[in-house]
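Possible regression after last week's pipeline update?

I re-ran a chain I had predicted before the update to compare outputs. Posting the input and the new output here so someone can diff against the archived version. Not blocking, just want to make sure nothing changed silently.
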Amino acid sequence: MIVRVCMGSSCHLKGSYEVVRRFQELQKKYNFKLYGSLCFGNCSQGVCVEIDGRLFSRVTPENAEEILKKVLQNG
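New output (post-update):
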């Protein structure tokens, strides 16, 4: 699984650094590669995260694990 967190200016201002830190913690529990990414073009819905090609919006440190679980369950 590949997780890409938007590091564009809008997502940065909305907390992308904290989301990255949460995903770094979750790497200990789940097997995935984590990358920073340029803008996904969905700035008003940030923080945006792409997981295996699927775009997720309004990602927070609090809902990051729930999103990972959904992707793992649904493929």
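Follow-up from reviewer: compared with the archived run. Helices lie at 9-13, 16-26, 64-74. Marking as no regression found.
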